[in-house]
């Protein structure tokens, strides 16, 4: 049940059947323009579609024009408490505003932001998480998926009362079941685009697992239009984690989908090391393809036959197989270089 509504974030379509959009957030000080630009360019290279910037003060808001001139993907201003920062970000050409109307203040301030966004053709993301549920809801019901959903609907109603409908919504909790339930409830109650995320997910390893567990169930059911894998790590790693999750769900349109066997007593090459090297070598591949790395002759030839290209291991040697055709039989140490060579020839990319 992907959202029916569609918004445009600096030329990137979100919702309404558009491809899933991968997002991240800079952890640089936004007023440090060189550092922020460098990080955004690295995110672009990794495959980020939209990036968010913290805008805690006027200096950060006033840095937006200089940043925007040097990057190639849409920018989102993350605004809390001071609605004037949203107005300044709009003057600087920001592509989207992220607010929580509940902490902006009175309705007049929310209307000022909504009117300015409407005039500029800039969408708003309403962001609700387990730490920002409205006080009356939290005191009466606690922090639950139901209260997150109720808080989000309340915030949407505020914007709708201002005549603003160019909106997407996020409802983030730090646990998987709560996050999934909150988004399922929201998907039933509105057709605004949904921004998926698990807040405070953790470090790269566990945060990726937690995010994958939440996103998997939602995306399989068609819930979600954009996502961020929030990690206590370099933001570039968030992009690779998001791409890997989408590849695992067969929802990513580019890059290598690597299938490899778990190894067993029949394996006679260093399959674990080889699979790791293949994954690293193909990390920047843009062409969508399935690459098999198989360890023995029992299942290897059949599995590799189903892939676009693959390796089938033997006793210190292996086969390079492309779409079921054996191309080469090589010593173990020559398999990876030849695989990369063949993939470069197939795709025209340099790895």
Could you report the average pLDDT, rounded to the nearest whole number? 91
Anisotropy-based shape = elongated
Number of extended strands? 15
Percent of residues in β-strands: 15-25%
So, the CATH homologous superfamily of the largest domain?
A: Dihydropteroate synthase-like
CATH architecture tag of the largest domain? Alpha-Beta Barrel
SSE arrangement, N to C = EEEHEHHEHEHHEHHEHEHEHEHEHEEEH
**Low-pLDDT residue intervals, each spanning 5 or more residues:** none
CATH uppermost class of the largest domain: Alpha Beta
Most strands sheet: 8 strands, parallel
Quaternary arrangement of the chains shown? single chain
Question: N-to-C terminal Cα separation, in Å?
Answer: 37 Å
User: Counting H and I runs of at least 4 residues, what is the number of helices?
Assistant: 14
Please identify the structural class as seen in this structure.
Answer: alpha/beta
Strand order of the largest sheet: 8-7-6-5-4-3-10-9
Helix content: 40-55%
Domains counted in the coordinates: how many?
2
CATH topology tier name of the largest domain: TIM Barrel
- Using only CA atoms, what is the Rg? 23 Å
């Amino acid at each position: 049940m992907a959202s029916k509504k569609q918004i445009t974030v600096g030329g990137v379509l979100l919702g309404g059947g558009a491809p899933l959009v991968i997002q991240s957030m800079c952890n640089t000080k936004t007023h440090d323009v060189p550092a922020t630009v460098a990080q955004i360019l690295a995110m672009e290279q990794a495959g980020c579609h939209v990036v968010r910037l913290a805008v805690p003060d006027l200096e950060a808001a006033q840095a937006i024009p200089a940043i925007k001139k040097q990057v190639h993907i849409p920018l989102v201003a993350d605004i809390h408490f001071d609605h004037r920062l949203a107005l300044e970000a709009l003057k600087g050409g920001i592509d989207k505003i992220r607010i929580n109307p509940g902490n902006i203040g009175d309705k007049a301030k929310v209307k000022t932001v909504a009117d300015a966004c409407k005039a500029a053709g800039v969408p708003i993301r309403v962001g609700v998480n387990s730490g920002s549920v409205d006080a009356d809801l939290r005191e009466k019901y606690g922090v639950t998926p139901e209260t997150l959903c109720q808080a989000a609907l309340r915030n949407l109603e505020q914007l709708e009362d201002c005549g603003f409908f160019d909106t997407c919504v996020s409802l983030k909790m730090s646990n998987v079941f709560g996050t999934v339930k909150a988004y399922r409830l929201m998907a039933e109650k509105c057709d605004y685009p949904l921004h998926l995320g698990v807040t405070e997910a953790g470090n790269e390893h566990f945060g990726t697992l937690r995010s994958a567990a939440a996103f998997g169930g939602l995306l399989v059911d068609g819930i979600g239009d954009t996502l961020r894998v929030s990690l206590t790590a370099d933001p570039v790693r968030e992009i690779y984690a998001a791409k890997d999750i989408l590849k695992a769900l067969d929802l990513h349109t580019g890059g290598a989908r690597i299938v490899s066997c778990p190894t067993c007593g029949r394996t006679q090459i260093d399959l674990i090391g080889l699979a790791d090297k293949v994954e690293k070598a193909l990390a920047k591949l843009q062409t969508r393809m399935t690459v098999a790395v198989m360890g023995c002759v029992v299942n290897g030839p059949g599995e590799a036959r189903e892939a676009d290209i693959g390796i089938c291991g033997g006793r210190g040697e292996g086969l390079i197989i492309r779409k079921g055709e054996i191309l080469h039989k090589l010593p173990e140490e020559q398999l990876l270089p030849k695989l990369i060579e063949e993939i470069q020839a197939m795709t025209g990319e340099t790895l």
